[in-house]
Structure formats: structure tokens, C-alpha cells
Amino acid sequence: MVFKHKDILGLQDLTAEEIELLLNTADNMKEISKREIKKVPTLRGKTVVNLFYEPSTRTRTSFEIAAKRLSADTLNISASTSAVQKGETLSDTARNIEAMKPDIIVMRHAISGSHHYLAKRVSYSVINAGDGAHEHPSQGLLDMMTMREKLGTLKGLKVAIVGDIAHSRVARSNIYGLTKMGARVFLAGPPTLIPPGVERLGNVTVCNRMRDAVEDADVIMMLRIQLERQGKTLLPTMREYSRFFGLSRDVVKLAKPGVLVMHPGPMNRGVEICSDVADGADSVILEQVENGVAVRMSMLYHVSGGGPTE
Amino acid sequence: MNLLIKNGHVINPSQNLDEKLDILVADGKIMEIGKKLAAPKGAEVIDAKGLLVTPGLIDMHVHLRDPGLEYKEDIVTGTRAAAAGGFTSVACMPNTGPVNDNKAVTSYIIAKAKAEGLVNVFPVGAITQGIKGENLAEMGDMKEAGCVAVSDDGKPVSNPELMRRALEYAKGMEITLISHSEDLGLAGDGQMNDGFTATELGLKGIPWVAENAATARDVFLAEFTDSPIHIAHVSTKGAVQIIRDAKARGVKVTCETAPHYFTLTEDAVRGYETNAKMNPPLRTGADVQAIKEGLSDGTIDAVATDHAPHHLDEKDVEYTLASNGIIGLETSLPLSLALVADKVLSPSQLIAKMSLNPARILGIDRGTLTQGAVADITLIDPNAEWVVETDKLESKSKNSPFLGKKMKGRAAYTIVGGKVVYKA
Amino acid sequence: MSTEATVILDGVGIKRALTRIAHEILERNKGVTDLVLVGIRTGGIHLARELASRLEEIEGVKIPVGSVDITLYRDDIKTQAAHLPVGKTEIPFSTEGKRVVLVDDVLFTGRTIRAAMDAMMDHGRPQYIQLAVLIDRGHRELPIRADFVGRNVPTSRKENIQVRFDSGDHPVEVFLEKN
Questions:
Q1: Are A133 and A111 within 8 A, CB to CB?
Q2: DSSP assignments along C9-54, one per residue
Q3: Distances (CA, A) of C113 to A142, B113, C98, C109, C116
Q4: Strand residues in A148-259 grouped as ranges (E)
Q5: How far is residue B357's CA from residue B351's CA, in Å, rounded to a whole number?
Q6: DSSP code of residue A57
Q7: Domain C4-78+85-178 has CATH 3.40.50.2020
Q8: Which of A224, A256, B14, B75 is 20 to 30 Å apart from B207, CA to CA?
């Protein structure tokens, strides 16, 4: 099994075998971050550009650390400091970067499909670090890595994803990845935040009530609710949201003993998740962050392997 | 200046003609239609064997982008594209820069089209000043200057009271009102049809109810004011049904659809294809089926392209940033002929929807092949196979979802006022 | 292409060679103080375990055994059409100041050993690194020499040498394939 893609745009494009390869590599790379010298020479001489059109601390830092641990040279470009502010198009930015001969570009962009646009036009590898409400494959992979590490397998797991599914790229990547790997996904959220046809994305069940999704779940994944994004028409108040879709200790009790509580961050404590749950024994939120580095090392390693061979 | 078109298969819906006939043209008018006509001395003869001879096709919904947006299209290139597509007349929408909301702009369009255009150009004026949806535009003045209809196309008249008054006023001025029926609140900042594909692509959806609700409102307003109304670019199953029901109870409603709405579904957007982005958006298979049924049972009166040229820079961008609309003049005929091949329409029904019916809706003396009529004639080779290629398109813009696709059928000759303006 | 396999070392021969290597390691290092074994994935790990059990039999002391995967240290990484899967590196002890014996099954060009030594250095600074191999087949491309060799086998470049292990990861035989 080898990885033949030039780019990683989403988990929808990958097979179960390819996802497994990425996860296995990530498992084996995790050890590097525990060494005294946290660096391997693998991507020596490669240049990784982090191009972030949306603010992000966690993902950008994680990709940067991952690239550095593989000995790649990294460069960060954020929209607020770049020519983007002066009205340069994505196409021009991409071509200008291309002229400087990077090997991999890690991009975050607010517009769904930006990465497809970019990947079609450039010779270097494109890794999607989040595009609009579409996909966030590295988050999906690190979530799956964490579940597999803690629970042994993804097959047959009941995973509840709760919150704003409609605007969530994390939800989509997890749905694609988890259902390919044999897990069952249960979604819950206010009806205004459940997108049409979502149950057709994979082995997905939509629940009206949070308790139906959480009951007997192996994993509860809470999504960030963003008042500024949800606008005025989709929800009454944060108070009501929290009452019906917030994760409290009582709700956690409905799940299997030893359930994993996950959150892609950043958390709204007291809104979608109570602090005692976020910081409780079931929470694996910091493990997710730790695994994020290993998963991103794996992604960088596999896309840099010479490109498509077909 | 005589022209004899021999051996062609004449389809003339206004007279129910569907047979092999010759047509003699003199001084820009049709002189005679009959069997085995002799060519007068010096007459040019076109052997139309194997070709359909139809009234000059009319596209009642195009954007020529002139004045003001000539980087996308202008009257010269737009009418050239029309001629290549078999159209002898086009009605051009007023969302130019400046907006065609007064007779000065109308006169400019007419003058330029007369001087430099290849085909007839019938301007459509705005319903409201500046297409802002606030105050009625000078419809009477524009009609006198040559506008054949009014429309705020590209935007709906959102205020229902204003729409009511616009219908009343247009009726009095005897000018056709064309409605872009869309509820902007429901459409929001949607990017494609709302549904599974939008969910999958993570794009905001435009729900069908945005079109249906607005169509229903407009039909009720037309009924209430007892005014004619023409609904532009119908794309949903529900809108077809609303119009069908309205026609059944006697509302003076007509409507059009565009070839892409009976050819493509929302699946064409996959891969974030900006040339599949338009408003209304491409819908589902069920909608495509309903559009075909609407065409077949006469609910949908006309096929119009909504030819919407955009510069490459407006389409070669991230999907959400791309402009809405596609060009259509040069692909409309083959895509529509597919309806005949699929037995959705008879040849005569199709030609009616592309000539006679638009002429009647707009109130122009075109769309028929009768003695004394203006000799606007299209000769169609229904079997010609060709591929849509960027550098062969006459339109200044190349934003077509059909690039690289095989087409069957095309105009062999386009004749405007007795003059051949296009020959394949 | 037909291949012809000749057994050049059988199970008994392998056992004898490993026992001898175990004694040589003890002799060279004057006992087991600070001694650790690190097997190179995957054959080297099995052999390292074999050596460790012999050392334990002889000296009565458990010798720490680790494993190293050299994929990320390969020098041909830029020319690979697609990157190879990465195996696990497990060195659950400090190598700082230790006498590390790297163990591999077949010593050939020396490139694997170079990669393994680089990997070891990233884990700490050992006092010594020594190399034990079951087979040395020659054709070195780097200035690398084994400290402990089970058997020297002159080969041609086209030939292939493999150590076969049973389901319990015990070495069964060494065979030579002529292509």
C-alpha cells in the first residue's frame, strides 16, 4: 500500500486503506515528538508553505511543528499581512508562491472548494487545513487516530457528533472518514443547523434530541457553536442552545462507560461543553492536540512522496 | 436581392406547416412559399436539402452587456454569437452600465444594433429606476423608444406593493413585464441548489422555495391586477406547477426556461465548477423532469438562454466568488433539439417555443414565415455533429459548462431581413 | 524470470552463529554492563531478541532490547515514487552513555546501517555503537564494517539473500536467490 495522491483535499477522496495508512504512519511518528531530539531528516530540503486566509492558532502551529519535526523548511503567510489584503487573487498568490518552488502548501481558506481550485492550477502538493464548511481532513484524521488509540478500533464504534453540523467542516471530514472506517455516526443539533441530505453522506443517523445520539455512544464529539456565524435566524439564544445541546455531566452518563469526549477547539466553555466535562476524566481533548502533530507529519510525509505514479 | 431557399423542410408553427417547400425572398420580405418555385433571374439559391427551414429563432432573454460591460460582451460580438446560434432576434436585458431605464440608453442600444449588429436587437427596459426596486422607471418613454418589455432581471422586485403597481402600469402602457421571481430572503447568500450536493460540497444552498414562493406571489399579483406577466428562467418543479395551475384558471401568465435547466442538474457543480454556477441554480433530476413536462404540456411557452457572458477573471476564481451565469446563444439550438430527439417536443412545438411564442409574448412582428413577413429565417442542420470549443465561440466570453461537449444540430444559415448573416 | 533458491545456513547453523556472536559481544564488552541491543526492523528485531535470550542464559541478566525503523532516515527518500510505510521505533530506555549493539540480518551496502546510526544519535549519545549481523554479503557502498558476523557469504549483486523466520519470529534458514 502506497499513497498516490499529490494532494489531500478531503477524506471524501481517500479510500479506507489510504486513511488507514495515514493513521498507521501517524501512530509510528508519534514517538518522534517524545524524543530528546524531536526531529527526523526525512523532508530535508523540502519547503512547506502555510497559507492561512483565516485566523488559526492551533492548526497552523500544529502543521508548522509537524513540518519542522520532519526537517522541512516552513514559511507562514497569513492573510492579514499578505498581498491578499491588497486585493491579490488566490490564483495570483498561488502562482507567485509557485515561482519560489515550494513543495507543499498547507492552506486554510474560508471558501469551500478553494483547495480544489488551487490544486488544479499548481504543481506542488496542496494540503487542506480547512475550507469553508467543506472539509478539514487533518482534524478528521487526528480525531480518528485518538479514537483508535483509546478504543483499539474504529469499526463498529458509535460516534455522536453534536452541534452546528451545517457549517462544520470538522463534522464532514469525520463523517467521511469514520463511516469509511466502519463506525456509525449519529448527529444531533438544532434542526436549523442540520444540513439537508446529510444522512446520505455515509452511515449517518440524524437525531432530533441529543440524548438519542449520545445514548450508548463510544465517542461524543462536540462542535464549536459560533454565534457570529450562525446569524440571527438560526437560533433563539445561546442559553437555549446550551440547555438542549450542551454537554453536561448528566448527558455524558447516557453514553458507554469510558466514553471519549472530544472537541476540535477552541471551546466555548459553558455553552456547548461544561468545564467539568471538558476537564474531566473522559476528555481526550489534549490528546487530540498531541495527535494532531503526528497526523500532520504523516500527511506531509505521504504527499511529498514523488506524486502520482499512475 | 432575391433569394430562393429550395428543397428545405419548412416548419412554420403559425400556419401549421411541416413539409418540403421552397421559399422565395425579395427585398427582405418573404415573397412566396410553395412547391418547386422557380428562381428569378439573378436570385441567389440555397439548396436546403436535409435542412429544416424555420422562422428566425428568437432568444427573448440575453445579456449583451452593452453599454458599460463591454469587456464581457458587446452588441457586435453578442449578435455575432446569436447569428452563429441561429437566432435572428434577441431581447437584451437592462442590467447594463448605465441601466437601460430611460430612452437615452434604449436609443443607444437600438442605434448601435442597427449600425453594427448582425441580428435584430429588441431592448428590454428596467421596471424600476436603476433596478433598485424603489421607483418605477419610465416605461412609456422606453416603449416609445423601442423597448419591447420591462424587467429588473438579475434582481426581483422584492416589494410586493411596487410589483403590483408595476404590473398595473405596464399593462396600461401595453408593455410586457418579465419577472425575475426570486425571494432574496430565502435565497440568502446561497451558492447552488439547496440539498444533498450543497451539503456535500459545504456550499450554502438556494432552496427551491425561494423561486416557488416568489413565482406564486407574482402570479397572484398578476391575477389580482388582471395583468399579463412573463416569468423568466423557470427552474423548479414547483414553479412549473404554480404556472400550470395559474394558466388553468385564466391568469395571463407566460414563462420561459433555459436549456441548462432541462439539460443539467446540480451534479454539474461538483468539483466546484464555476461554469455551472448561475441563478436560479441548476436543480435536481426531478426538476429537470418537471421542466420537460412543462415544455411538453405547454406550461412553458418559450426557451430562452439567459445568455450571461462573464470575463474569465470573473469565473476563474474560487466558486463562491464567481459570477452567476453562463453563455447560451451558441449551444441553445442543439440542446433544445435534444428535446425533439427525446420525444419531449415535436419539431414544430420546439420551433414555436424558440420563435413564434417569444414573438407573441414580446409583441414583435417576427416568428412566422408568411407572405409579406420580414424574411428572418433560420436553416437548421439537425444532424450536424460538433464540439463546443473555446476558440470557436463567437461570444466574447467563454463561460459555458458545455465546453468540450459534443453537440448535435446547428444553424446552417441564419438569415436576417433576407440577408445571410451566418453560414456554417 | 526464474529464481533458484539455495539454503546457505540452516536452523542449526543459525543457532550456532548466534551463540558465537553472543559470546563475542560479551567478550568485547567485558560483560553486560551498560549493554543494550537495538534491532533494525524487521529481521534485526527478531535476531536482537534471540541474542538477548542467549545473553541472559549466559550471564543471567536481562538485556534491554529496542527496535529502530529507518524509513524516515533513508537516503533514497527523494527518489521514491511514493513514500514507504513507516514502522514503529521503540527504544523504551535511555541510550545515553550506553553500549549499543545494532542488530541486522543481512549487511549489504551499509546504507541501512548509516540510517540506523543516525536514528540512534537522535535518541541520545551512546558510548559505543557496535554492529552485529547474521550475514555479511559484501558490496559495501559506505565505510561501514560489522563488529560481529555470523557468516560471510560472497555474492553477486544480482543475488538476493533472505532470512526466513517462522511464525514465532525465530530464524529458520538463510537462503540465496539467483535471479
A1: no
A2: E-HHHHHHHHHHHHHHHHHHHTSSTTEEEEEETTHHHHHHHHHHHH
A3: 33, 81, 18, 9, 5
A4: 158-162, 184-188, 204-207, 219-222
A5: 9
A6: S
A7: yes
A8: A224
A114 to chain B, closest Cα gap in Å = 5
Residue range(s) occupied by CATH 3.20.20.140 in chain B: 57-362
* Crossing angle of helices B103-116 and B75-84, rounded to 10°: 60
Chain C contact present for A299, CB below 8 A: no
Q: Provide φ and ψ at A227, rounded to 5°.
A: -60, -40
Secondary structure class of B133 (helix, strand, coil): coil
Helix, strand, or coil (residue B167): helix
Q: In whole angstroms, what is the distance from residue A127 CA to residue A137 CA?
A: 9
- Contact flag A35-C83 (C-beta cutoff 8 Å): no
Q: Reply yes or no on whether the pLDDT at A63 is more than 90.
A: yes
B319 touches chain A (CB under 8 A): yes
CA distances from B360 to B23, B299, C121 (A): 23, 15, 87
Q: Which three cell numbers stand for residue C86?
A: 513507516
Name the grid cell of A277. Answer: 466535562
Note the pLDDT tens digit of each residue in B7-19.
999 999 999 999 9
DSSP state of B55: E
Q: What are phi and psi of A221, to 5 degrees?
A: -110, 115
First vs last Cα of chain A: how many Å apart? 14
Which DSSP string do the residues of B93-129 spell out, in sequence order?
A: -S-SSS-S-SHHHHHHHHHHHHHH-SSEEEEEE-SBG
* Radius of gyration (C-alpha) of chain C in whole angstroms: 16
Q: Tell me: the pLDDT tens digits for C119-138?
A: 999 999 999 999 999 999 99
* Cα(B91)–Cα(B357) distance, integer angstroms: 13
Residues 6+ apart with CB under 8 A from A236: none
Query: Is the preceding peptide bond at B98 cis, omega within 30 degrees of 0?
Result: yes
Query: Touching check for B205 and chain A: CB below 8 Å?
Result: yes
Asked if A42 lies within 8 A of C78 by C-beta distance, the reply is: no
Is B306 annotated in the active site? yes
Catalytic residue among B183, B301, B306, B376: B306
CB within 8 Å: A111 and B271: no
Does B417 have pLDDT greater than 80?
yes
CB of B123 within 8 A of CB of B109?
yes
* pLDDT for residue A77: 87
Kindly state whether A155 is in contact with chain C, defined as any CB-CB distance less than 8 angstroms. no
**B183 interaction partners in chain A (CB closer than 8 Å):** none
Query: In the structure grid, which three cell numbers stand for residue B316, read together?
Result: 476563474
Domain ranges of chain C: 4-78+85-178
Q: At what angle do helices A58-69 and A285-303 cross, to 10 degrees?
A: 50
Is 2.60.120.200 the CATH classification of the domain at B2-52+374-423? no
Chain C residue at shortest CA distance from A31: C89
According to the model, what pLDDT value does residue A290 have? 95
Put simply, the answer to whether A39 touches C90 (Cβ < 8 Å) is no
CA closest to A194 among chain B residues: B199
Query: Residue A213: how many CA atoms within 13 Å on its side-chain side?
Result: 26
Task: Look at B318 and A90 and tell me if their CB atoms are within 8 Å.
Answer: yes
pLDDT tens, residue by residue, B271-318: 999 999 999 999 999 999 999 999 999 999 999 999 999 999 999 999
Q: How confident is the model at residue B1 (pLDDT cuts 50, 70, 90)?
A: low
Provide the grid cell at B373.
413577413
Distance from CA of A47 to the nearest CA of C (A): 13
Q: Which long-range contacts (CB under 8 A, 24 or more apart) does B293-298 make?
A: B293/B240, B294/B234, B294/B240, B294/B243, B294/B244, B294/B257, B295/B257, B295/B262, B295/B339, B295/B344, B295/B345, B295/B349, B295/B353, B296/B344, B296/B345, B296/B349, B297/B244
